């Protein structure tokens, strides 16, 4: 996890240096920190971002190893606005039913991957052979306890 910030930052989003532990922004050094999910596997972004205040943006990073170039599908549910960056490339925002996640779900459903009433969104992620970096940018502010769940579709 990196943040919180008061606005998105392209130097974080475009980084392709997977070993980079810290990043300098406007003369200040920030370090990626380990972030644990809750017991259900939820990423509770409200632990990082401010509900009332300017710091509504945070970044979460994970890695995928691929034996060959391929595409995987990730299934999301979120109360936050999410944007995805793979290996420094902007994949855009996560959509729901063809609409921008501006009007987010009222809940980030823990059973979204098996309950059609809590369907969320599925996004195709291109992976290259070897190590791949996924950065998820969240913008909170709608809910005091924002967050998301993500599941790789088999």
Explain this structure:
There is one protein chain. With 154 residues, this protein is mostly beta strands. It has a single domain (2-153), classed as Sandwich (Jelly Rolls), CATH 2.60.120. The protein contains one helix and twelve strands. It has one helix spanning 10-13; strands spanning 2-5, 22-25, 28-31, 57-66, 70-78, 81-86, 89-93, 95-96, 99-100, 121-127, 130-139, 148-153. The strands form four sheets. It has a five-stranded antiparallel sheet, with no helix packed on it. Strands 10-5-12 form a three-stranded antiparallel sheet, with no helix packed on it. Strand 8 (95-96) and strand 9 (99-100) form a beta hairpin. The longest helix has 4 residues, at 10-13. It is globular and about 45 Å long.
Strand percent estimate: 35-45%
What is the tally of beta strands? 12
Low-confidence stretches: 97-104
| Main sheet strand line-up | 1-4-11-6-7
Which class do the helix and strand fractions yield? mainly beta
Q: Considering DSSP H and I runs of 4 or more, what fraction of the residues is helical? A: under 10%
> What number of structural domains do the residues give?
1
CATH fold-type name: Jelly Rolls
Order of helices and strands: EHEEEEEEEEEEE
- Compute the separation of the termini in Å: 26 Å
Rg computed from alpha carbons, rounded to a whole number of angstroms: 15 Å
Gross morphology? globular
- The overall average pLDDT, rounded, is 82
What is the CATH class?
Mainly Beta
CATH architecture: Sandwich
Summarize the structure.
With 154 residues, the protein is mainly β.
